[in-house]
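Hi V.,

You were right to ask for the full record rather than a summary. Here it is.
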Amino acid sequence: MIKSTQEFDYVIVGAGSAGCVLANRLSEDPAVSVCLLEAGPSDRSIFIQMPAALTFPIESDRYNWKFESEPEPELHGRSIGQARGRGLGGSSSINGMVYVRGARQDYDSWRSLGVEGWDFDDCLPYFQKLESFEGGRDPMRGGSGPISVVRSKADHPLYRAFLSAGQEFGLRDAGDYNSGEQDGVHITQATIRDGVRCSTSLAYLAPARRRPNLTVMTGCLVEKILVDGRTAGGVTLSQRGERKMIRAARETILSAGTVGSPHLLMLSGIGDRTALNEHGIASTAHLPGVGADLQDHVVAPLRFTSPGGVSIRRQLNMVGRLKLGIEWLLFKRGLGATNFFEVGAFFKSSDAIDYFNMQHEFLPFLADFQSGKVTISEGFQYFVSQMRPYSRGRIALKSADPAAKPSIRFNYLTDRRDTLEMVDGVRKTLDMANQSAWLRYKGAAVDTPERTASDAEIEAWLRTVANTEHHPTSTCRMGSDDLAVTDSAGRVHGLEKLRIVDGSILPRVPSANINAPIIMAAEKIAAAMTRG
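Predicted structure:
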């Protein structure tokens, strides 16, 4: 039974990387009322605010939805965990804080899918609008936006060895990789402000919450979109055991993410008619692309021991963590103010590739972020990931119960081209790890192929270790083909007053960590909405 009903001009479902942006920009107009709904809690936690504590929210059921894929057919039936933020700031409150825009070619290629107005030159003003880059404003960078972007210090010997080894191999120094050509080794840029994680909750939502026309509700499980004929009019939800109706006079906007938005559409009868009927859900709008076309960056870790005391591991023991925490609490500096991903690279797996298709992220210790429980030991590791996968997965219903998690299958490496690119990328990485810059620091390989391994041996190893970069996109993608769900402004095809703004609408996963592109997309669509 519905206990209460409220009405606003705009109802936004999900206070994540996109939802917080929309809440801020739409509520800038004092004549409109905005309601932001979030399933999770507040983000007021030292473990979210401290960059170095990023492992804690990843391990937490409180801040992480902790989705699990179905058994992956080309990964020996392994289920892959997928971290998605749950709480104010969404995934921007639990991610690795690495700031990458993506390549010009990524956005320009979206035209082939019938997406207009999203070329890189169309997107650049919104990247500039969102960021406050420590290097200041220039023709490519923003200097006064809500999101603080800083260069990492990268002053540890292992970071310097990574950069030197990449250049010895033949990669260039990319410098400011968000300002022009992205390929090469680089010092990473991060979304950190004065030693604190700069999530969209901190950057966009916190200043907007002072406005009387913005209402923020946490602990809200949205159950269904209200649809009358072809028009969306709000949502029903459950909050602390009480069912409520929140009506939207102008628009209902889904910003629940690449998993959450298609899930809610399907629960509301919007999706493939046949699949919905299997769960007893009446079809409101037949859109077979809902949940389809799931894309993600597949990743493999190459791990090496190092002589005792070289890696940062020794600074992360019990005593070291205590010192780290005290220094951060008092001064917001030291290891507590880093995300540890301070260097990286983009490169081609082969000369046959048009532009870089592989990414390196790097840690100066050994860590397993995939198993749900993070463990740290002595050594260092390269993370090798493929930027533009050909394999496609899907989100589907397991149940008509809104509290039940959906079915997720990524289908990693099901397209042979992905496997071949990853094998080539791993082989090049093994060569980089064999450069003279590593002579003083590298010990034995740990669950990592030798340079003499055959392609077949590397492929077999990949299928045992390949995992997710936690960069899912495209399950409600923009476009005009049969599988497109939204138009170039995020409006759901065939329905009125219903829009989606989050990573699910990106036509293809960018060659980037996806937080920056999602914030950019929210800024771009919000600007179009407020222009009328």
